[in-house]
Amino acid sequence: MSDDYQIEIPPSFQALYTNARQRLTVPLAELRDRYELCEDLANHLTEHCRNVHAEVGDIQVEVLRRCHQGLTGPDAVVSDPEAVWVITRLAELLYWPMDWQPQPPTEST
Questions:
Q1: What does each C-alpha distance from 99 to 6, 50, 68, 73 come to in angstroms?
Q2: What is the 3 state secondary structure string of the chain?
Q3: What's the distance, CA 48 to chain centroid?
Q4: Apex CA 106: angle with CA 65 and CA 74, to 5°?
Q5: Residue 52: which residues within 8 A CB-CB, separation 6 or more?
Q6: Largest Cα–Cα distance in the chain?
Q7: What is the gyration radius of the CA atoms in the chain, in angstroms?
Q8: CA distance 60 to 72
Q9: Has residue 2 got a pLDDT over 70?
Q10: pLDDT digits (tens, 9 = 90+) for 30-89
Q11: How many CB atoms lie within 10 A of CB 34?
């Protein structure tokens, strides 16, 4: 059987689904699906983030943090590690600083 999959999955994404022995922890088809979802999401968010940065004037790191908050939570379609990967990829696509960090969770009192 021929494998006609043409998209190269970057090592940074593969690392999300690789164990200490460098073996995938999910089936290859699932890895491919998850990568395509995350890459599409990062590409889709580029224009939105540019607009927020230009219209609202938020600094780039704050825009990235706010996008990360939007990707995480109870209704999230990506895991927390995937959300970090998406935002890092988004920063790369926008040529923005990639030294952003997710906001630590706030404690309710």
A1: 30, 18, 13, 22
A2: CCCCCCCCCCHHHHHHHECCCCCECCCHHHHHHHHHHHHHHHHHHHHHHHHHHHHHCCCHHHHHHHHHHHHCCCCCCCCHHHHHHHHHHHHHHHCCCCCCCCCCCCCCC
A3: 15
A4: 70
A5: 58, 63, 66
A6: 58
A7: 16
A8: 19
A9: no
A10: 999 999 999 999 999 999 999 999 988 879 999 999 999 999 988 999 999 999 999 999
A11: 19
Contact 86, 76 (CB under 8 A): no
| Neighbouring C-beta atoms of residue 68, cutoff 10 Å | 20
The token duo for 81 is 């590690």
- C-beta separation of 69 from 101 below 8 A: no
Residue 42 burial by Cβ neighbours in a 10 Å radius (0-12, 13-18, 19+): buried
Q: Please enumerate in sequence order all residues whose Cβ is within 8 A of that of 35, keeping only pairs 6 or more positions apart, or say none.
A: 7, 9, 13
